[in-house]
C-alpha cells in the first residue's frame, strides 16, 4: 500500500496494520476492536467497517481524509505473522518503536515468505488428511491413502499459488482428484478402502467448516455484513468441492464401476489405545499448525488446544449416547452437546493462553476448532443432495447448522467464563 503524499506516519501505520491483520486471518470483530484501540493511542477517533474483501476506515478528526477504502483479498490464516504484527503493535503502543520504523518492519514482514512453506506445508496437508481419516473411522489403509492424497493436494496448492487463473478451480479439482482416486482404490482393493472416507479426509483442510463457524460468530456479534459475506463465500466453496467430488466419482464409476466398501470400521479400531489417540491428535495438531503458519514455540499450545477440544467432545459424546444408543435423534443431540462442550473447552484454553502469554487467543483457537468444525457434515449433506437423496441431505444440513450454532455458543460462553483480557 503506497501512502498519499504528506500523510502522517501514524495514519499510514494504522491503515497498514489493519490491512495486514485482515490478510492474516483476523475476524471482523477483533480487527475492528484492535484498529479502534490503536487509533485512540495515536489520539485519533475512527469508525471501522470490515468485510472479507474490503476495509472502510473513517477518521472523525485529525486526518487529511475523512474515509479511506482498502481493497483487500481474503487470504488464508497465518498465525505466525499475526503474532508478529501483534508484537510490533505492542511495542509501538509502549513507545519502544516509532511509527516510521514500524512501517518498515511491516513491509519486511509482508515480503517475508510463509514460515512453513515448501515441504513443511505439503507435509501439513498430508498429516491433516491422514489424521482426519482416523477421526472419521477409517482403517489404516484409508489413513495412508488419505495422507498420500493430502500430499498431492498440497503440491497442487503450490502450483495454484504460482499460476494465475488456477486458484478458482483449485478446490473442485482437488475434490475431483480425491474422489476419483478413492473410488479407483476401493475397486482395486475391495473391502480395504472406504472411498467416501478417503474423499472427505483428503480435502478436509479445504472444506470451509472453519469459515462457516467464523461467519456465525460474526453474525452473533452483530457484524452482519462481514458475517453474511463470509457465510456466502463458505457455501460457495462447499458447492464447488461437492461438485468436484461428485464429478470425480461419476467419471471413475462410469469406466470401472463403483468401489466395494467393506464393513464399517469403528473409530475405536485405530484409537483404542491412549498412545494411538495421543499420537493421532498430535499429528493432526502439527499438520494444522504447519498449514496455519504457527511459530515453533506455539505448536505445543496448538496441540494442547486440539487435544483439549477433542478429549472433551469425545467424552461428552460417549456420556450423551449411553442412554439412547438405538435412537437416531440421540446422535444428533449428542453431536450438538459435544460441539458446545468442545468449543467451550477450546475457547477457555485459548483465553488462558491469551492471558498467560499476552498474545491473541486466535493462535490456539483456530487449530483447536478444526477438530470440531462441521465441515465434514456439510460435505456429506451436499453429497447427499448430489445423489438425489434430498431427505438425508436436509437432515444432514440441519445437523451442520446445529453443530455450528453449538460451536458459536461454546466460544461465546468461554469469553464469559474466562475473558481473554486484552485488546491488541
Structural class by SSE content: mainly alpha
Query: Strand arrangement, largest sheet?
Result: 1-2-3
Rg calc: 22 Å
Give me the oligomer status.
single chain
Shape: globular
What's the overall average pLDDT, rounded? 83
Q: Count the DSSP helices.
A: 17
Description:
The structure is a single chain. The chain is 69% helix and 4% strand. Mean pLDDT is 83; it is low at 261-268. It is globular, with a radius of gyration of 22 Å. The chain has 17 helices and 3 strands. The two termini are 22 Å apart. It is mainly alpha-helical. The chain has helices spanning 9-23, 28-41, 79-93, 99-111, 119-135, 140-162, 170-188, 195-202, 209-220, 224-256, 268-271, 274-291, 299-321, 328-357, 362-370, 375-386, 390-417; strands at 46-51, 54-59, 67-71. Strand 2 and strand 3 form a beta hairpin. It has a 3-stranded antiparallel beta sheet.
Amino acid at each position: 500500500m503506497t501512502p498519499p503524499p504528506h500523510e502522517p506516519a501514524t495514519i499510514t501505520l494504522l491503515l497498514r496494520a489493519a490491512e495486514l491483520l485482515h490478510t492474516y486471518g483476523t475476524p471482523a470483530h477483533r480487527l475492528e476492536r484492535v484498529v479502534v484501540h490503536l487509533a485512540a493511542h495515536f489520539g485519533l477517533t475512527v469508525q471501522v467497517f470490515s468485510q472479507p474483501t474490503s476495509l472502510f476506515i473513517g477518521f472523525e478528526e485529525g486526518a487529511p481524509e475523512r474515509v479511506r477504502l482498502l481493497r483487500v483479498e481474503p487470504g488464508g490464516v497465518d498465525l505466525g505473522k499475526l503474532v508478529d504484527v501483534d508484537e510490533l503493535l505492542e511495542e509501538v503502543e509502549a513507545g519502544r518503536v516509532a511509527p516510521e520504523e514500524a512501517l518498515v518492519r511491516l513491509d519486511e514482514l509482508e515480503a517475508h515468505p510463509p514460515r512453513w512453506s515448501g515441504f513443511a506445508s505439503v507435509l501439513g496437508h498430508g498429516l491433516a488428511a491422514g489424521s482426519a481419516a482416523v477421526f472419521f473411522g477409517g482403517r489404516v489403509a484409508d489413513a495412508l491413502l488419505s495422507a498420500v492424497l493430502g500430499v498431492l493436494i498440497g503440491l497442487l496448492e503450490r502450483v495454484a499459488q504460482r499460476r494465475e487463473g488456477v486458484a478458482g478451480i483449485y478446490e473442485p479439482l482437488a475434490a475431483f482428484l480425491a474422489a476419483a482416486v478413492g473410488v479407483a482404490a476401493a475397486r482395486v482393493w475391495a473391502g480395504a478402502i472406504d472411498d467416501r472416507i478417503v474423499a472427505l479426509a483428503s480435502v478436509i483442510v479445504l472444506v470451509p467448516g472453519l469459515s462457516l463457524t467464523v461467519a456465525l460468530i460474526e453474525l452473533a456479534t452483530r457484524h452482519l455484513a462481514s458475517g453474511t459475506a463470509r457465510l456466502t463465500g463458505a457455501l460457495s466453496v462447499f458447492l464447488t468441492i461437492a461438485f468436484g467430488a461428485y464429478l470425480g466419482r461419476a467419471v471413475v464409476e462410469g469406466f470401472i464401476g463403483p468401489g466395494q466398501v467393506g464393513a464399517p470400521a469403528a473409530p475405536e479400531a485405530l484409537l483404542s489405545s491412549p498412545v494411538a489417540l495421543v499420537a493421532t491428535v498430535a499429528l493432526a495438531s502439527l499438520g494444522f499448525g504447519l498449514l496455519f503458519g504457527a511459530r515453533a514455540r506455539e505448536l505445543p499450545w496448538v496441540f494442547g488446544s486440539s487435544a483439549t477440544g477433542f478429549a472433551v467432545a469425545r467424552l461428552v459424546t460417549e456420556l450423551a449416547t449411553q442412554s439412547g444408543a438405538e435412537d437416531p435423534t440421540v446422535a444428533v443431540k449428542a453431536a450438538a452437546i459435544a460441539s458446545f462442550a468442545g468449543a467451550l473447552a477450546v475457547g477457555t484454553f485459548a483465553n488462558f493462553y491469551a492471558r498467560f502469554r499476552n498474545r491473541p487467543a486466535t493462535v490456539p483457537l483456530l487449530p483447536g476448532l478444526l477438530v470440531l468444525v462441521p465441515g465434514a457434515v456439510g460435505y456429506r449433506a451436499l453429497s447427499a443432495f448430489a445423489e438425489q437423496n434430498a431427505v438425508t441431505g436436509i437432515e444432514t444440513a440441519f445437523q451442520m447448522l446445529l453443530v455450528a450454532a453449538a460451536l458459536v455458543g461454546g466460544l461465546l460462553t468461554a469469553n464469559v467464563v474466562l475473558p481473554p483480557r486484552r485488546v491488541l
